[in-house]
Structure of chorismate mutase:
Amino acid sequence: MRQNIDRIDRELVRLMAERGRYVHEASRFKANPAQVEAPERAEAVVRKAMTLAEENGLSPKIAENTYRTMVRSFIDYEQGVFAKAVAAGQTPWKK
Ligand SMILES: C=C(O[C@@H]1C=C(C(=O)O)C=C[C@H]1O)C(=O)O
Protein backbone atom coordinates (compact mmCIF):
# COMPACT_ATOMS: atom_id res chain seq x y z
CA MET A 1 0.00 0.00 0.00
CA ARG A 2 2.73 2.48 0.94
CA GLN A 3 4.60 1.49 -2.21
CA ASN A 4 1.57 2.61 -4.21
CA ILE A 5 1.41 5.91 -2.32
CA ASP A 6 5.14 6.46 -2.94
CA ARG A 7 4.67 5.69 -6.65
CA ILE A 8 1.77 8.14 -6.89
CA ASP A 9 3.77 10.82 -5.06
CA ARG A 10 6.61 10.45 -7.56
CA GLU A 11 4.10 10.91 -10.38
CA LEU A 12 2.35 13.86 -8.71
CA VAL A 13 5.61 15.71 -8.13
CA ARG A 14 6.72 14.98 -11.71
CA LEU A 15 3.42 16.46 -12.95
CA MET A 16 3.79 19.46 -10.62
CA ALA A 17 7.25 20.10 -12.07
CA GLU A 18 5.77 19.94 -15.58
CA ARG A 19 2.98 22.30 -14.47
CA GLY A 20 5.62 24.65 -13.10
CA ARG A 21 7.33 24.84 -16.47
CA TYR A 22 4.06 25.96 -18.11
CA VAL A 23 3.42 28.49 -15.34
CA HIS A 24 6.94 29.80 -16.01
CA GLU A 25 6.06 30.10 -19.71
CA ALA A 26 2.79 31.90 -18.89
CA SER A 27 4.74 34.66 -17.13
CA ARG A 28 6.23 35.65 -20.50
CA PHE A 29 2.78 36.77 -21.68
CA LYS A 30 2.00 38.92 -18.64
CA ALA A 31 2.42 42.70 -18.59
CA ASN A 32 2.22 43.39 -14.84
CA PRO A 33 1.95 41.67 -11.43
CA ALA A 34 -1.87 41.91 -11.51
CA GLN A 35 -1.92 39.87 -14.70
CA VAL A 36 0.40 37.35 -13.06
CA GLU A 37 -2.08 37.07 -10.18
CA ALA A 38 -5.10 36.56 -12.53
CA PRO A 39 -7.50 35.84 -9.63
CA GLU A 40 -10.48 34.90 -11.84
CA ARG A 41 -8.42 32.28 -13.67
CA ALA A 42 -6.96 31.01 -10.38
CA GLU A 43 -10.47 30.64 -8.96
CA ALA A 44 -11.66 28.84 -12.11
CA VAL A 45 -8.74 26.37 -11.79
CA VAL A 46 -9.74 25.60 -8.18
CA ARG A 47 -13.43 25.20 -9.11
CA LYS A 48 -12.52 22.90 -12.00
CA ALA A 49 -10.40 20.75 -9.69
CA MET A 50 -13.38 20.47 -7.30
CA THR A 51 -15.66 19.32 -10.13
CA LEU A 52 -13.06 16.81 -11.31
CA ALA A 53 -12.71 15.58 -7.73
CA GLU A 54 -16.44 14.88 -7.52
CA GLU A 55 -16.33 13.02 -10.83
CA ASN A 56 -13.42 10.91 -9.59
CA GLY A 57 -14.69 10.07 -6.11
CA LEU A 58 -12.34 12.45 -4.27
CA SER A 59 -13.57 14.81 -1.58
CA PRO A 60 -13.97 18.26 -3.22
CA LYS A 61 -12.70 19.77 0.05
CA ILE A 62 -9.39 17.92 -0.35
CA ALA A 63 -9.16 19.11 -3.96
CA GLU A 64 -10.03 22.67 -2.94
CA ASN A 65 -7.52 22.87 -0.08
CA THR A 66 -4.79 21.25 -2.14
CA TYR A 67 -5.42 23.42 -5.19
CA ARG A 68 -5.71 26.69 -3.25
CA THR A 69 -2.32 26.01 -1.68
CA MET A 70 -0.75 24.77 -4.91
CA VAL A 71 -2.03 27.59 -7.13
CA ARG A 72 -1.01 30.19 -4.50
CA SER A 73 2.51 28.73 -4.53
CA PHE A 74 2.66 28.76 -8.33
CA ILE A 75 1.48 32.39 -8.39
CA ASP A 76 4.22 33.33 -5.90
CA TYR A 77 6.74 31.44 -8.05
CA GLU A 78 5.46 33.19 -11.20
CA GLN A 79 5.64 36.61 -9.49
CA GLY A 80 9.30 35.86 -8.78
CA VAL A 81 9.98 34.87 -12.39
CA PHE A 82 8.15 37.99 -13.58
CA ALA A 83 10.04 40.34 -11.21
CA LYS A 84 13.35 38.85 -12.37
CA ALA A 85 12.43 39.36 -16.03
CA VAL A 86 11.46 42.99 -15.32
CA ALA A 87 14.73 43.59 -13.45
CA ALA A 88 16.68 42.11 -16.37
CA GLY A 89 14.75 44.21 -18.90
CA GLN A 90 13.40 41.01 -20.46
CA THR A 91 9.71 41.84 -20.47
CA PRO A 92 8.18 40.57 -23.73
CA TRP A 93 6.05 43.67 -24.42
CA LYS A 94 9.26 45.73 -24.66
CA LYS A 95 10.89 43.46 -27.24
C1 LIG B 1 -0.39 30.22 -14.82
C2 LIG B 1 -1.08 31.35 -14.76
O1 LIG B 1 -0.88 32.32 -13.75
C3 LIG B 1 -1.35 32.18 -12.44
C4 LIG B 1 -1.29 30.79 -11.94
C5 LIG B 1 -2.33 29.91 -12.16
C6 LIG B 1 -2.20 28.45 -11.89
O2 LIG B 1 -1.20 28.04 -11.27
O3 LIG B 1 -3.08 27.68 -12.33
C7 LIG B 1 -3.56 30.41 -12.65
C8 LIG B 1 -3.76 31.73 -12.84
C9 LIG B 1 -2.77 32.73 -12.39
O4 LIG B 1 -3.12 33.09 -11.08
C10 LIG B 1 -2.08 31.69 -15.78
O5 LIG B 1 -2.51 32.86 -15.84
O6 LIG B 1 -2.45 30.80 -16.56
User: Anything to note?
Assistant: The radius of gyration is 16 Å.
